[in-house]
Design brief:
- The structure is a single chain.
- By secondary structure, the protein is an alpha+beta fold.
- It folds into two domains: 150 residues, Orthogonal Bundle (Poly(a)-polymerase, middle domain), CATH 1.10.1410; 132 residues, Beta Polymerase, domain 2.
- Helices cover 46% and strands 16% of the residues.
- The protein contains nine helices and nine strands.
- The strands form two sheets. Strands 1, 2, 5, 6, 7, 8 and 9 form a seven-stranded mixed β-sheet that branches.
- Strand 3 and strand 4 form a beta hairpin.
- Helix 4 crosses helix 6 and helix 5 packs across helix 7.
- The chain starts with 11 loop residues before the first helix and ends in an 8-residue tail after the last helix.
């Protein structure tokens, strides 16, 4: 079984037609060369400013772009700014992350005076006039390595610092993606698109989705994308969108949403998606690909390819 009320054997013709539409939908999420040029320019302008103001050991683009799960014109670009210790110490102790974020924000506000900078959790978000590819600037400091991967302290919402290792998490996710035959990253991109096409957008953490997929083996090699996506929705629903523990033991709990109110909203959206995804798979099992496509179009709020 792929989930409650869903038969595992899909009719070959219906499966092929539905799969084609999922692949077509995925094609709309691919970055173009113009997209890459746009976000690279954004990153470079921020790096130039911060290098003139802080002692920095390295910059690193991380997050969904590095993990091959970003979607064009929707995903923010995460930029890790690793500061030298002198930038973080006062009176022999590490200052609060709130203090560091405020300094970073002030410097960027001078560089981009007509931009509405804001703090969003661990980052300072820098939007640009082109309307997409804002940069999430995450200040950090280097800590003890995790195996062969570098670890960092990054801000928390309460002014403290938490451990993370972008390299270790990336390796964990991409290894699971390889085992799934590439279905994990495709499924992550699909659910991010689902999140974005809803009005208002669902407050679902991309990192939570990727780590849940990787740690629980939801996507299997050869598994149709329709079944992968349903299985993810069903798992989120069954878990009531609760946070998961970092399977590598590096960081804190990885939440699906930031607040209980957001989790309640997300749970409603996931429940709706589960019902229609189940109906889509059942139609596909019966060989009714048109009804399957209609149901997926409901899930994707009218954005699923119907032809």
């Amino acid at each position: 079984m792929t989930g409650p009320g869903v038969r595992i054997f899909l009719q070959p013709l219906a499966r092929g037609l539905v799969q084609e539409r999922f692949e077509k939908l995925l094609g709309t999420t691919d970055f173009t060369e113009a997209d890459k040029k746009a976000y690279t320019g954004h990153v470079n302008s921020i790096v130039a400013r911060l290098r003139s103001s802080f002692q920095i050991s390295k910059f690193q683009v991380f997050g969904s772009v590095s993990r091959q799960t970003a979607i064009r014109q929707q995903s923010d670009i995460d930029l890790l700014v690793v500061l030298e210790p002198v930038e973080l110490m006062w009176g022999g102790a590490v200052v609060t992350s709130t203090t560091v974020l405020a300094r970073v924000r002030d410097e960027l506000a001078d560089r981009f005076p007509n931009t509405s900078l804001r703090r969003d959790g661990e980052a300072i978000v820098v939007p640009f006039k082109d309307g997409y590819y804002p940069i999430d600037v995450v200040p950090a400091y280097q800590t003890k390595n995790y195996e062969q991967h570098e670890c960092y302290g990054i801000p928390t919402a309460d002014g403290c610092w938490q451990a993370t290792s972008p390299g270790a998490h990336k390796s964990f996710i991409l290894k699971a993606n390889l085992l799934s035959g590439g279905q994990l990253c495709k499924t992550a991109r699909l659910v991010k698109l689902w999140r974005c096409v809803r009005t208002p957008e669902f407050p679902l953490s991309s990192f939570h989705v990727e780590m849940l997929l990787a740690s629980e083996g939801i996507c299997q090699r050869g598994m149709p994308l329709a079944a992968c996506l349903f299985a993810l929705f069903e798992r989120l629903h069954r878990r009531e969108c609760r946070a998961i523990r970092d399977p590598l033991g590096i960081g804190r709990l990885i939440g699906a949403a930031r607040t209980e109110a957001q989790r309640d909203t997300l749970m409603q959206g996931v429940a709706y998606a589960v019902d229609h995804a189940r109906a889509a798979l059942n139609a596909e099992c019966a060989g009714d690909w048109r009804e399957a496509v209609r149901q997926w179009d409901i899930v994707f709020n009218g954005q699923f390819p119907t032809t």
